[in-house]
Amino acid sequence: MEAASNLSSSLPLSPSRYRTTAVLTPHQRIASLSTAAAAGALPSCRTHLARLHQRRSAILPLRCNVRETVPDQEMASIDVEDPRIAKIAKAIRVIPDFPKPGILFQDITTLLLDTKAFRDTIDLFVERYRGKDITVVAGIEARGFIFGPPIALAIGAKFVPMRKPKKLPGEVISEEYSLEYGTDKIEMHVGAVEAGERALVIDDLIATGGTLCAAIRLLERVGVDVVECACVIELHGLKGRERLGDKPLFVLVNAAA
């Protein structure tokens, strides 16, 4: 998980202070039912929902913005809402001033304690990547090891751990990346992947994007096609997505930073 210096706070943020808003890319946008539609402007709600069901395979899982807001504010209306995303967002605990002052730590251990939310998290990724000819799921140490293996098994891909220096016992290939102060490396075993394979890179969170960029470079050096990066959480204020350039990024929950 990437270190992130984001908003400081003196009090924990309760789930009730978040508003969850699904975000659709333009090709995913479909019309929502209005009150008039429900009253007869469309043939019927049942007919509309049946058509939605038929189109489900063409609709990618939604991304979700989670913003701090007033406790009593209602959830914003959206075009299409996947109720699983709101539950996932609520299951993630936010701890202020950890591991140092000024950082809001996104704690996924509470998500792992919620078996329904944890399963829904894996299912959303699997629904997106199944049938995409992905042969490698590369998980970034350490929390990428939690989400990567079940996704890999479900889509029929192998799991490749990308580790910190001197953690892998065999011959390794490494890629250096910059930190706020100094540098670090990410490594994988030589021979773990082959040129021409298609990879998904996964971690629990993207902050500045440094670790994900290093993982992409490392895989591409040996001829692997990195199809997409995926994270449970994005700290969108730290512009990690921009650092990835044109490499696609899929996230479930956006948290303010």
Give the radius of gyration.
Answer: 20 Å
Helix and strand succession? EHHEHEEHHEHEEEEHEHE
Q: Report the biggest beta sheet as strand number plus sense, adding barrel if it closes.
A: 7 strands, mixed
Q: Remind me, CATH topology? A: Rossmann fold
The percentage helix is 25-40%
Q: Major sheet: order of its strands?
A: 1-2-11-10-9-5-6
CATH architecture: 3-Layer(aba) Sandwich
Helix count equals: 8
Question: What is the CATH level 1 assignment?
Answer: Alpha Beta
What is the tally of beta strands? 11
Proportion of beta-strand residues: 25-35%
Termini separation: 15 Å
Integer tally of domains:
1
- Average pLDDT over all residues: 77
* Spans where pLDDT lies below 50 across 5 or more residues: 3-80
